[in-house]
Amino acid sequence: MALIKFKVEDRDGSVQELEIPDDMSLSLMEALKASEYHILATCGGMALCATCHVQVMEGFDNLPISNSDELDMLDTLPDVTDISRLACQLRINEKLSGAYFKIVGATEE
Q1: Is residue 63 part of a domain?
Q2: Which residues pair with 84 in a beta bridge?
Q3: For 71-96, what is each residue's pLDDT tens digit?
Q4: What is the mean pLDDT of residues 53-59?
Q5: What's the pTM?
Q6: For the 2Fe-2S ferredoxin-type domain, which residue ranges apply (predicted)?
Q7: CB count, 10 Å around CB of 14?
Q8: Residue 91 has what DSSP assignment?
Q9: CB count in 10 Å sphere of residue 33
Q10: CA distances from 62 to 66, 94, 100 (A)
């Protein structure tokens, strides 16, 4: 088991470094929810709602490419950028090590 370290910027601008084990097959969305970030995740990680939208401020080129479902959902967002991803589609593994994510998706009410 390795600990994958990456930074997360919350909507209020606060930045925290997270260390998540890579042996639990978690998505970034699940890791953020477990770390008590307010991620709505209405669809439960199926790339159907885009409420887990993040921007990849550092490390974007290390990530796997987006699949067509993710790209279709990102296309529905008014605030999508060329560094946008859905946290539900990113698995915690060595490719996330050193990355910096900014949460921009919908918040829990």
Answers
A1: yes
A2: 55
A3: 999 999 999 999 999 999 999 999 99
A4: 98
A5: 0.94
A6: 2-107
A7: 8
A8: B
A9: 19
A10: 12, 9, 12
